[in-house]
Amino acid sequence: MKGRIAGQVQINSEPVAGAVVYLSPLDGRPLAAAPTVSTVRQEHLRFAPDVLVVPAGMTIRFENHDDEIHNIHSRSNDNRFDTGAHLPGTVKEVILKNPGAVPIRCRTHQNMRALIIVTPSPYFSVTDKLGRFEISNVPTGRYRVETWHPQLTADERASGGMDLNLDAEGQVVQLQFTARAGAGTDLTETTGRDWTSVVEQIRTELDLAIALWKRGRITAATAKVMNTHSRLYGESGLREAISQVSGKVRAAEHERRLDALRKRIQGIGAETTTESILKEEAAALVIGLMRDAEKMTDS
């Protein structure tokens, strides 16, 4: 017997397009075999398609239709590969064995970008502009319904998943997620991005906050630090990037320093606050952030 699962995906109470909803069996039953090969063409210095969803175990066939030599690679943790020199008119194949997001790049043409989402089963769907999805012809049984979206961290994705028993009548589900990152943030690839520019923005905002404090504008200075914390450290994706590359403890340490600076500016605590102390604490925070940002940029 087979059924269907339909519903909507919302992030921060808003429907989202481009979310990948997929099923993982909970009862250990083998699933129907999926197609074994999917093709990505390189033509006009672009990948076509540039977004692809495939089940684990899929062979990706890269076809070079350009007159240029390409070098396709991915630095994803679970599906890392490098095709080497890819000559015009030739084919390279890669098997993607593990579920997850696989950003694809070309070493010789930096603007060539694609993304492959690998799911643990052949039962998946991509949401439309209203956040709606439908997965049909699914064998009845127990499943975990999970979602991938570039705005969500791994923990956020896990918290919004659900288990269900699918019967022939089907199910309609509402998948709700709370994201720390702002709308439009892409957390797919943390390494290789220029995070140092984000840290420089943090440095500038903290300098402005200290200048406001010096002029007696405590409320404005506090708001500046809080906005820096939420927008530049959180919503930009920097916190999640540091968490992935340097660990959650390291990311939490930067967060603690930001909060401590905010409390000093507000005058919370018995310690005396001076401009020199504020500058020293802000500098120590920025140095640590810059060290992590450079590590990720060079990865």
Could you characterize the architecture of this molecule?
This protein has helices spanning 154-159, 196-214, 218-235, 238-246, 248-266, 275-298; strands at 2-11, 14-15, 20-25, 37-43, 46-48, 51-55, 58-64, 72-74, 81-82, 91-96, 100-106, 113-119, 124-126, 132-139, 141-148, 162-166, 171-177. The protein is globular, with a radius of gyration of 23 Å. A 5-stranded mixed beta sheet has the order 6-12-11-8-9, with no helix packed on it. Strands 1, 2, 14 and 17 form a 4-stranded mixed beta sheet that branches. Strands 13-3-15-16 form a 4-stranded antiparallel beta sheet. The chain folds into 2 domains: 2-177, Immunoglobulin-like (Sandwich); 196-298, no CATH class. The model has no long low-confidence stretch (mean pLDDT 90). The chain is built from 6 helices and 17 strands. The longest helix has 24 residues, at 275-298. α2 (196-214) packs antiparallel against α3 (218-235), α4 (238-246) crosses α5 and α5 runs antiparallel to α6. β4 (37-43) and β5 (46-48) form a beta hairpin. The chain is an alpha+beta fold and 299 residues long.
